[in-house]
Amino acid sequence: MARQATGIGRTALVLGATGGVGGEMARALAVRGWRVRGLRRKPAESLPPGNIEWMVGDAMNAGDVMAAAEGAALIVHAVNPPAYRHWDQLVLPMLDNSIAAACANRARILLPGTVYNYGPDVFPLIPETAAQNPLTRKGAIRVEMERRLHRAVGQGAKLLILRCGDFFGPKAGNSWFSQGLLTPGKPPTRINQPGQPGIGHQWAYLPDVAETAMRLLDREAALGDDAMFHMDGHWDADGSRMVAAIARAFGEPDLPVRRMPWWLLRLAGLAVPLFRELGEMRYLWQQPVRLDNRRLLALLGEEPHTPLVLAVRRTLEGLGYLPALPADMPEARRCMPDRVASSHPG
Questions:
Q1: How would you classify residue 44: left for phi > 0, otherwise alpha for psi between -120 and 50, otherwise beta?
Q2: How far is CA 144 from the centre of its chain?
Q3: CATH code for position 205
Q4: Rounded to whole angstroms, how far apart are CA atoms 321 and 254?
Q5: Under a CB-based contact definition with an 8 Å cutoff, are residues 64 and 39 in contact?
Q6: H or E stretch at 230
Q7: pLDDT single digits (tens) 288-320
Q8: Cβ 74 vs Cβ 106: under 8 Å
Q9: Domain assignment of residue 137, given as a range
Q10: Which residues form the signal peptide (predicted)?
Q11: Separation between Cα atoms, residue 344 and residue 201, nearest integer Å
């Protein structure tokens, strides 16, 4: 399908532009020629690089969001409370503010979706039409978020949900990759393995997520008012590929691998909200859970896909574990795109 007009000259508001998902979206939009606004609670002497117009405001303040969204054709809702503090009290009010601003501007809301909406009744391969019967409190809130977004389509807004596996990437601080597989703030002495041996798991590299979103937005006319797509990302069929890629990136192929001490995570969760939230998602590591990307492939022809070894290397660089590897280094040049994401998981 021929590419339609890009977003040159159009305005996008990115909520969460200082975070991992929002930051990647903001950068990708700017490269595409969008005028990008970011909302942050405090002015800062040094701001993240990029062609972003920063506005002072709070996603919890309806007036701030409405003012920042004036004239916007797109609102990227990628904001989350840090470390999941008061998540259940803040998430829906923030979303309602984005919805109100989208309806007022007849804008499209882009929501990065998760698998938390689903329960085992639709595992292991999940299409966009699957029933959403979550097992957790967080999953139930995610379902309610999407219910409100679909309802907003009838009130003047448009919607694009791009659902992915577990995020990883250079700026993805609160993630299973950085908080679960590795020990934050410490030199790597081992890799934690949350899943059971032989159980597959799905990962999504943030730059690939952003590029996929951009290609979908380039096809605005084909999306319709209420669009939802699933990404395949990096499918680790037996749980060993990600661990091996991390060990290879560190240059330590014999780096020890330890099964995740879930009992300790539950205990730590009594005091640390992040660990409590991670512990609730154990069921997603006990059986294969994979998003079906056939609908995405039918529209785009292929899914953007950075080779896993390079994606992991760039992630570890961004998290401060490794020095940056220049793009023209031999290792980077050897990492040619593989074809995994060009075929659906069926």
A1: beta
A2: 18
A3: 3.40.50.720
A4: 17
A5: yes
A6: strand 226-230
A7: 999 999 999 999 999 999 999 999 999 999 999
A8: no
A9: 11-237+286-322
A10: none
A11: 15
